[in-house]
Amino acid sequence: MRDVYVAGVGTTRFGRQPQRSPRELAEAATREALLDAGTPAREIEALWLANATSGLGSGQLAVLGQMVTRGLGVEGIPVVRVENACASGSTAMREAYLAVAHGDVDVAVAVGTESLTGWSTAAMTEIMARASDAELEAPLGLTFPGVFGMIARRHAELYGTTPAQLAAVAVKAHRNGALNPIAQFDAPIEIEDVLGARRVASPLGLLDCCPISDGGAAVVLSAQRPAGAPRVAASALSSGRFRDDSTMTEFTATQLAARRCYELAGIEPADVDVAEVHDCFTIAEVIHGEDLGFCPRGEGGAFVESGATAIGGAVAVNPSGGLKARGHPVGATGVAQVVELATQLRGEAGERQVDGPEVALAHTLGGFVHGDAAACAVHVLVRD
Amino acid sequence: MRDVYVAGVGTTRFGRQPQRSPRELAEAATREALLDAGTPAREIEALWLANATSGLGSGQLAVLGQMVTRGLGVEGIPVVRVENACASGSTAMREAYLAVAHGDVDVAVAVGTESLTGWSTAAMTEIMARASDAELEAPLGLTFPGVFGMIARRHAELYGTTPAQLAAVAVKAHRNGALNPIAQFDAPIEIEDVLGARRVASPLGLLDCCPISDGGAAVVLSAQRPAGAPRVAASALSSGRFRDDSTMTEFTATQLAARRCYELAGIEPADVDVAEVHDCFTIAEVIHGEDLGFCPRGEGGAFVESGATAIGGAVAVNPSGGLKARGHPVGATGVAQVVELATQLRGEAGERQVDGPEVALAHTLGGFVHGDAAACAVHVLVRD
Predict the structure, then answer these.
(1) Number of neighbours of residue B190 by Cβ within 10 angstroms
(2) What is the DSSP string of A187-232?
(3) Which of B224, B232, B228, B221 is nearest to B34 (CA)?
(4) Can you tell me the distance from the alpha carbon of B88 to that of B55, in angstroms, rounded to the nearest whole number?
(5) Distance from CA of A186 to the nearest CA of B (A)
(6) 0.90 exceeded by the pTM?
(7) Which residue of A has its CA nearest to B57?
(8) Which of A41, A181, A319, B300 is 20 to 30 A distant from B338 in Cα terms?
(9) Looking at this predicted complex, what is its ipTM?
(10) Which of B155, B278, B288, B328 is catalytic?
(11) Do B76 and A241 touch (CB under 8 A)?
């Protein structure tokens, strides 16, 4: 396998913009990434597009990726859409990375896109529930806020995790997001705001949940290194264990993917300077800190509350604002993480810049099936 | 790249079976393929699942592949869903092939599945139209029967292709399908039946169109060769050219993918003994014969009418019955082609066995966007 570099990154604004189609969002992000890389569109040799929902309603059911390459005037290349629930974007990143690493192509694009705000919150909650077992779990009413509410209760029972610790995740996310020009939410919030918000699935309230978002994000991966471009040091994709005796307070899919990436990159969890993790709900970020080895099992809540994951802490987690404040346009999320981490490693993150990061980690979960995450993708990027 | 073998194949019956979910169809096909390969499920190291529509309605929106691995008791492995319209199955085949060829894994599964008969023909026609430009072409009423009706008219105008030549494609398909135990249609038809059928999009009538189908198909790909297993000699995936001046009577996506495969496999079109091609409409098979180089441009109609593509002809095309008679459960189709070709190369195709084939070619199209196929995947399998 040869080295692969994140040659360019691009992203639209995240948030409510239902007038822009998934195709348009994807094309805009890709154009920006190409411009950033200094790569003409005609040099793209393959493209993977991530999208979960555009076939619903009267949208582009199929060949959305080809609609993007057509818009860019790119002809004849392999184009594939991938879906892995909320890990779709990082799955596209992985497929594109492997194609360049193995020498199938020299330049590949991974682009993610999603338009969700055209749906009501109730409809979207029902739609997303079909990333669990749609024949068994979803019809029983197992929505994702419900799943993570149960997880939060169990984590509290086992480890004493408090609502204030969960709230600290949201406060950090909004503080970082307010420094990110593309973020959906641009205002800081306080612990009291989170604790006092309307309950959604107790103990989780409205401000413990990531929003519904529209957006697109793209990266250009290349076997050639433009000056200052980060290197992809590891990529792993795992599914879960789906055991009926799952405690639901750890995700084996994360543990497997992270362990593989640490091996491939030759690093320890303590080497990670900055991470973008899948904070779909505040409790999720608490658990990811444990599963990724940033803190001991059960101490994820205290770890966040201590400030260790703030910009300037031991490991800056979600400096972009994360799913919680940057927003969560499903297919775009995993790619947006790589956009943020590449920007951080290049030292171009402006007000939210982490001090001199050298090792960065991206982490997404996709779906939740019978007690475990259905998918987890982890990537490690380095500045070397 | 190392050699990759089709170690095992499996398929459900194709046809109307709306009581079986896409998950169930995929799992049944995968179990059969594993049994055929003599491979325990625990040895699967990665799985790609192809499906285009299961997220519509209240189906499994996401992580359908993990629902299959969970059913098989397989834990932790990378699982990805791919979609490329009607080329989804062969796209899954390609991704799984590359993973084994590059040494990422030793054993991978490609499985395709689709449930379509729960929809009315009118609804399905509208849904499938969203594999064109869903913002521009589909709202104008450009359905796939309409597209291929226009293509047939143009081909007739340019080359004199007759309705009887088109009908010969359907007659051959049904004759072959009647010999295939899993085919949707089990009765031969006559030229007069095709010419006398209700018109759908003139000159195409009902019997010029492939049916709406439910079904699943799976292959186990391995770096180890079980006795008699065919080798994958080439794989290519292309998108189209999307030119406004397209004649619509040739698919550059096919030409690009086929040329690449002939180069990779070191063969000429005349070396192909048996092929499964994307006969979504009779005119499509006529054009594929030309694009794949089986006959000169414009002579595809006469080529089929001559019997050259029958079992026993110069190149047996769609001995399975093809999309037209075996059926077309979208995500499953490209995988089912490989199932048929591996069966033919192993000499196990029973009454529809081609005489001693050594080189086999699978071809699918996906979508149709601005005058060209959005995607085309070609694979070459050999017995050596």
Answers:
(1) 12
(2) S---HHHHHHSPEEETTEEGGGB----EEEEEEEEESS--TTPPEE
(3) B221
(4) 15
(5) 31
(6) yes
(7) A56
(8) B300
(9) 0.98
(10) B328
(11) yes
